[in-house]
Amino acid sequence: MSTPKMTETQILAGTIKVVAAVAECIRDLGQVPSGHLYARLMGSLKIEDYQAIINQLKNAELVKEENHLLTWVGPKKTSL
Length: 80
Hints:
alpha+beta; Arc Repressor Mutant, subunit A; 3-stranded antiparallel beta sheet; 54% helix; 14% strand
């Protein structure tokens, strides 16, 4: 029995969920040393993937990085 292949849409949706989860973590913490965050994620993400996610968040101007400290600069979490 073969395993069904994931569609491009499913892969993209999974990628978006991972990026959103990392963003939410940084947002909730406010600030976090990048190495500390990666240490928590290294069992699930390769360093190259982690760096790509952080770069995406920085390019989107949601996160800034100074001296390896990640700081959330995007919109604050709203309470409903």
